[in-house]
Write a structure and sequence with these properties.
Elements: H1 7-20, H2 24-43, E1 48-51, E2 58-61
Antiparallel strand pairs: 1-2
Helix pairs in contact: 1-2
Amino acid sequence: MTLELPPKAREKLEDLSEQTDQSFSEVIRRALATYDLLWTESKKGNSLIIRSPEADREVIFSEFAH
């Protein structure tokens, strides 16, 4: 399979591969699994909350599928 990416996306893939010590394929597989989870939960009406360790800030994703 050949995957053509714009330069910025290619750079992000390379960065993530280096940071995680994983192959491009593994980074893409994990990204797809994450996207699938977010999409599926969003369709159910669920939200994702990311809380900082200090719990002074929360980021909420509630309309991922829209």
